[in-house]
Amino acid sequence: DSGVTQTPKHLITATGQRVTLRCSPRSGDLSVYWYQQSLDQGLQFLIQYYNGEERAKGNILERFSAQQFPDLHSELNLSSLELGDSALYFCASSVDWGGNEQFFGPGTRLTVL
Amino acid sequence: GESVGLHLPTLSVQEGDNSIINCAYSNSASDYFIWYKQESGKGPQFIIDIRSNMDKRQGQRVTVLLNKTVKHLSLQIAATQPGDSAVYFCAENIRAGTGGFKTIFGAGTRLFVKA
After folding, report:
1. What does the pLDDT look like over B82-110, one tens digit per residue?
2. B84: left (phi > 0), else alpha (psi -120 to 50), else beta?
3. Contact assignment for B102 to A48 by CB distance below 8 Å
């Protein structure tokens, strides 16, 4: 158990819909990262937050957005969902902004029908 | 562009043998290189990292070698055990954004350990 929690574990929705994925980092970790893992694209970095502020962005679609709240939990919002958004979404956390040793949550499996 | 790739997608080794997983990278601006292990149904798990100004770093049963001349990274696992069966990813941390880092993962190598 990494100490990072993600909810929900599974999510099934329809195209065009909007969903919110939630992540609670390990106690004491200030950085949160979001990743998308699909069979054809592998593990793709989406975005990093540190102590509530966005620090780095990957190839995150404009339909996707995230935020980190004062209690350090984070949410990833995915809107206007497409079939191709079906994937595993992982959240990870680290103590500082450097991010070498990231602790990953169990992931949320999103299925868009 | 930025990319981290792997030479071998699948590696099968006998229990007790040493395993070597290889990785090629293309970005010379990385500060750190990292190895993660992902077991079925779980999130990736950190194994070891190496700073870009180092050539070798050892951990418990694992050694990472970095050859910057040919942009090559390898993970050596000594006395491989059945519990080592997983997908192994190399990754690189690159400074990005406002004082942040983005982690670029390779495609992954699946390691099978035969009993």
Report:
1. 999 999 999 999 888 888 889 999 989 99
2. alpha
3. yes
Residue with tokens 């992540």: A23
Q: Which one-letter amino acid corresponds to residue B32?
A: Y
Least CB-CB distance to B100: which of A35, A50, A107?
Answer: A50
Residue of A nearest to B90 (CA): A43
Per-residue pLDDT tens digits for A3-53: 999 999 999 999 999 999 999 999 999 999 999 998 777 899 999 999 999
Candidate from A43, A57, A100 with C-beta closest to B105: A43
Question: Rounded to whole angstroms, what are the CA distances from A103 to A15, A21, A84, A97?
Answer: 31, 17, 26, 13
Contact B43, A92 (CB under 8 A): yes
Residue A30 sits at the chain B interface (C-beta within 8 Å) = no
